């Protein structure tokens, strides 16, 4: 484990058992309650449409309500630990639950509602005298960003020919963000979110070109938007997919601000983005690409972070900070050594003769550029986290059943297991000796843990966990006291059987970095994912998200598997499950984890 400064908090709570059934569990002495589930009005002044349990809300109403599938989340204080903003992603939707008659019919209104249930929410929350948290409604900060909200484009792809469409001939304004996963925040007070599986929203028709194939586009879309919104017909609008797959930046304190896609950070099936600061004050942004056999990136800003002043907030003073700098991709070599390779037009293979006309094309085609540079193909990089005490960077590699399959990459030092069903967590320290600054081009890496279950027969499924079992690490977050929290996202189709028989519901654990012990803190309801973690500055309130309880609705009618039914958190008989935020406190009001 990383060297452990004396100030690091040692997690101290009674671990809970493997999660079963349709309930959320936390240790004795803790209280957990749902807040801001799908469909709650976010608090737009004069626009507070009540949630209809029959899913009868219109698209316009949905655009004023919490979206579906809560994911990454961050607390921005307004009044310390008593009142603040929660900013969170709504990764995607389950159209079977979103509409009263599910997918039995399909209309333009349903497409608009589906689009309105995606994106990002900003809500104001406060703690009452009794200790509970509630939404403040209306709130001047309340905001929904959806798949139709205008974004500007920053960085080298702004205005690029590959970003231009008939509706946006300048290539500088994109409508919307979707499939947003992880949350990050910047030292200048903005929120970062990654656009992950954007490919699922586009229909690319019968003839895919090499660029479309490399980005996984398919003939038809998983979400049925192209049927009623030609923007998602990539035959008619072949550049529209190039406008997604970016890290987006939102200033939550200014509800009128236009969010920005930061193209200098590279295009990828981005999980999210996390910021470290070099000793001389430049921003270093780590990000990964949650897709099988794709890459881990870092971006080093050209300029130093500016303080607030001259009438500008810190967010305003750093409005263009992430538009200028150098993008790198990671190569993990044997013996725990690694290299950051620059994606700079004109260097090495990234030339016009090799298909990269300029830096804009390098960032739009980051995958092709990383292929050409020989970067390491990883086992689905999900969240990253930077240890506030040691500077060690951690990344979850959630799983990769393709590792070692015919014609695909085999095990390598960093991704050591064929058919990696349970996933692992890798980490590195910057510099050739591990003692460098965040802008170093070499690093030293090792594994924190290989997830698995020693009871399994297959050697690659055993893992080396110390403490409580888990599989498919996804969310990973350090709190301010240096505790590493790990959340899991094993898929509904794998859970409760075979190599996952002893793992139970998805969960959250704390890692004691002094010993490597994983200790189970929370288990979620049936077939949910546990994701996103943020705390108030006093460490007394934790917010996490429960995503897609009861995934998927088809499971609800499967008599062979009634255990998959969920109607968390309302437990309304026959009701719909709802993704929601969960507020966790100690019953005695004490500090979480101690
Ligand atoms: Fe959307 Fe990779 O989780
Ligand atoms: Ca995730
Ligand atoms: Ca996941
Ligand atoms: Ca998910």
TrEMBL record:
SUPFAM superfamilies listed in its UniProt record: Calcium-dependent phosphotriesterase
Protein's recorded name: PhoX family phosphatase
Pfam families registered for this protein in UniProt: PhoX
PANTHER family: DUF839 DOMAIN-CONTAINING PROTEIN, SLR8030 PROTEIN
Disordered as annotated region, ranges: 548-579
Domain of life: Bacteria
